[in-house]
Write a structure and sequence with these properties.
Blueprint: H1 44-69, H2 76-82, H3 88-111, H4 116-141, H5 146-156, H6 176-196, H7 201-225, H8 231-238, H9 242-245, H10 247-269, H11 273-291, H12 301-326, H13 330-335, H14 338-345, H15 347-371, H16 376-414
Length: about 425
């Protein structure tokens, strides 16, 4: 048996055409002051995917900060292999594109317009308040370098991904991904305006596919024009900039268009095990390339990165996300568990606070453990678990004290 939450218009309908009826959004839980205000549950399996993404991001940062920055001894092979699992962030981008695209498609179907006032009010009151609270607390709680003071206004303006992300240059260097998303949101209505001028859904899908591939073209041009590169310089030039990393967000919007227009057809097609394998195997091949980037030799590693930092990850998630949306296997049911929805509700807060927790709690604890000759075989996973636990606790406080009041105000202003 297959999926549950699939909504698609008739075969001859267009997601960007005149208003049409759509399913009502899942009701948000309403509770007391300490209750969670959970995320929309229209796509339950995506909550589990979001939690796995945040777990991989936190694990990456624990590894990098421990050995890459602080010199805390880890097994060199484990260190190198752990840093290949960078693509949790790209999953966030794909899911953001999918959810934002779905929101705008529903708005167009219901009212015939994107309703930009409501769109931006909902985005601002969802993402801005926790970000500004954490950024301000960090700026006040710790002494700032001259560079951090100089760059702080740009961090408040979501320009972090165009600043140097070296330590001591910005207060929240990990805010680069949030800045990239906010910048992309500014252009999304223009993108949907252009999509609305096209005559068919196939043309829209083709345009979005071409746009996603254009990010690869930008990366290749930058790489060729400024050779030779050190690995870190290439990373700084290509990994964080909006104009080199928008392909994953566009891939998410492509998924939203496919879901709206062909979702039921795709769900029916995926009922056959062979068809599920047809979708899964290329995604697994992409995953293998991502975790074995040196398989073609160390001399080609930088070229592999040009493809891996957006194109390969997009292709991987273009297969995996539909499998989560339209199938009903054990993995999909597990990803749809209510536990993941609760954790995913706190995921944004976890991302905002996990780096300071690693820096100021986990690093001193790991140094003390290293001084006592404790094995990193259990110190590292313990640090990861403790980072997640403390981050969830602080994220819960942010949710109750900042997010919920902001969301209530958002509902009043956007209604």
């Amino acid at each position: 048996m297959m999926r549950g939450n699939v909504t698609a218009p008739p075969r001859d309908a267009s997601p960007l055409a005149a208003p049409a009826a759509t399913s009502a959004p899942a009701a948000r839980a309403s509770g007391g002051f300490f209750a969670l205000d959970p995320l929309d549950n229209r796509f339950p399996a995506l909550h589990g995917m979001r939690v796995l993404a945040i777990l991989t991001v936190v694990a990456y940062h624990v590894t990098w900060i421990f050995m890459g920055e602080q010199g805390i001894r880890l097994d060199p092979y484990f260190f190198a292999q752990s840093l290949t699992v960078f693509f949790g962030m790209d999953l966030f981008f794909v899911l953001s594109g999918f959810l934002i695209g779905s929101i705008l498609l529903r708005s167009i179907a219901q009212s015939g317009t994107q309703d930009l006032r409501r769109f931006y009010i909902r985005r601002v009151f969802r993402t801005f308040p926790p970000y500004y609270v954490v950024l301000t607390v960090l700026a006040l709680a710790f002494p700032l370098t001259a560079a951090q003071r100089h760059h702080l206004p740009w961090e408040y303006l979501y320009g972090t991904n165009f600043l140097s992300l070296m330590r001591g240059q910005t207060v929240m260097f990990w805010g680069w991904s949030l800045a990239l998303e906010e910048q992309f949101y500014l252009t999304v209505p223009l993108l949907f305006f252009a999509l609305g001028r096209l005559r068919s859904d196939r043309a829209r899908a083709a345009l979005l596919s071409a746009m996603a591939l254009s990010a690869l073209a930008v990366r290749v041009v930058i790489y060729l024009r400024h050779r030779p590169w050190s690995d870190m310089d290439l990373y700084g030039a290509l990994y964080f900039r909006t104009y080199t990393r928008f392909d994953t967000l566009v891939a998410g919007i492509l998924l939203a268009v496919v879901h709206k227009r062909w979702g039921k057809d795709l769900a029916a097609w995926l009922e056959a095990p062979a068809h599920r394998a047809t979708l899964a195997l290329p995604s697994l091949a992409c995953l293998w390339l991502l975790v074995r980037p040196a398989m073609f030799g160390p001399e080609t590693l930088q070229v592999v990165h040009l493809f891996a930092w957006g194109t390969v990850t997009s292709l991987m998630y273009l297969g995996l996300v539909p499998l989560a949306l339209y199938t009903d296997g054990a993995l999909t049911r597990w990803l749809s568990a209510p536990f993941f929805r609760r954790v995913a509700t706190l995921g944004y807060g976890v991302y905002l606070v996990h780096i300071p927790i690693i820096d100021h709690v986990m690093v001193p604890a790991a140094r003390a453990a290293q001084g006592r000759a404790w094995s990193m075989l259990w110190v590292w996973p313990s640090a990861l678990a403790a980072t997640m636990g403390l981050s969830l606790a602080v994220a819960y406080a942010l949710h109750v004290l900042v997010e919920k009041p902001s969301l209530r105000l958002r509902e009043r202003l956007s209604s």
